[in-house]
Amino acid sequence: MKQELKYLPVLALTALIWGVAFVAQSVGGEHVGPFTFNCVRSLLGGAVLLPMIPLLGRLSGNRREEAAPADRKNLWLGGALCGIILGLASSLQQWALEYASVGKAGFITALYIVIVPVLGIFFHRMPGAQVWLAVVVAVAGLYLLCWSGGAALGPGEWMLFGCSALFSLHILVIDHFSPLVDGVKLSCIQFFVAGLFCAVPTLLFEKPAVSDVLAAWAPILYAGALSCGVAYTLQVVAQKHVEPTLASLTLSLESVFSVLAGWLLLHQTLTARELAGCALVFCAIVLAQLPSRKKVKH
Predict the structure, then answer these.
(1) What is the pLDDT confidence band of residue 155, given thresholds at 50, 70 and 90?
(2) pLDDT tens, 27-82?
(3) If we measure between CA atoms, which residue out of 183, 184, 182, 200 comes closest to residue 87?
């Protein structure tokens, strides 16, 4: 328990960085396309992290070297899979911010915490009754948050749902590979892979000018150095020392921070209906974690 309490502030800091990053993404999207933004931020995150691997390796308490062929295979395979999924999820999220507010994007993205235990069905881990209740509550919350009276959801909401599903898969892949390899190296590889993955559609469809990238230097620097290089790595490091349920609950504060950041920095507000939807989604996030905590105690 002492070990968990020691790393909970690390996860809270991660959630804060991610929440504010929605503002950086929204501002950056005014200058460059979604693939360009994520290509540059990911490569920057990997470049920032690369010289810090020795230091962060000591902080993580994992000094292992991937000397065996199986270890190297796990490191590169895990990094490649995480990078591709992260590149897809981040690009969908960035694209969605052209249609949705920062607060709404934060809360819908946070639904990965509900989706992850439901996906456990495919790994022969049947969710408990509280998870299914969480799904119902989340649907009710999303109805209040997203449905504006039209016949269908908007493109921003659909992109965010896809983003949330991809982040759920990203968490499952990290959970599989992080015990097998050095988490800091895994994080570094995933950023370079995500950056190279996004570079292809960037060159094919967006063809950004250098002046556009320079105009977005501040949000790209924040999203690359802090949200990628620092926050994602802190997540990998801290999750090794904190029980998954407690870690997920702490990281879910990202959605709260995104609303606060959008309100303080971009002066974006939510209606009473949308705030009620946010409250229900957050309740669903909490409910979804309760069954898994009981299982851990067994």
Answers:
(1) confident
(2) 999 999 999 999 999 999 999 888 877 776 565 555 555 557 778 899 999 999 99
(3) 200
Query: pLDDT at position 4, please?
Result: 66
Higher pLDDT, 36 or 143: 36
Phi, psi of 267 (to 5 degrees): 60, 35
Residue 85 corresponds to which tokens in the numbers above? 């999924």
To the nearest 10 degrees (0 to 180), the angle between helices 183-201 and 69-96 is: 50
The tokens for 260 are 């606060």
pLDDT tens-place string over residues 245-258: 667 777 878 888 88
User: What DSSP string runs through the chain?
Assistant: -HHHHHHHHHHHHHHHHHHHHHHHHHHHTTTS-HHHHHHHHHHHHHHHHGGGHHHHHHHHT------SHHHHHHHHHHHHHHHHHHHHHHHHHHHHTTTS-HHHHHHHHTTHHHHHHHHGGGGT----HHHHHHHHHHHHHHHHHH--SSSS--HHHHHHHHHHHHHHHHHHHHHHHTTTS-HHHHHHHHHHHHHHHHHHHIIIII---HHHHHHTHHHHHIIIIIIIIIIIHHHHHHHTTS-HHHHHHHHTHHHHHHHHHHHHHS-----HHHHHHHHHHHHHHHHHHHHHHHHHH-
Structural contact between residues 285 and 113, judged by C-beta atoms closer than 8 angstroms: yes
Each residue's pLDDT tens digit, 65-75: 555 777 889 99
Do the beta carbons of residue 109 and residue 93 sit within 8 Å? yes
Mean pLDDT of 150-154: 63
Name the amino acid, one letter, at 139.
Answer: V
Tokens of 142: 């999303």
| 94 in Cβ contact with 38 (< 8 Å) | yes
Are the CB atoms for 15 and 285 separated by under 8 Å? no
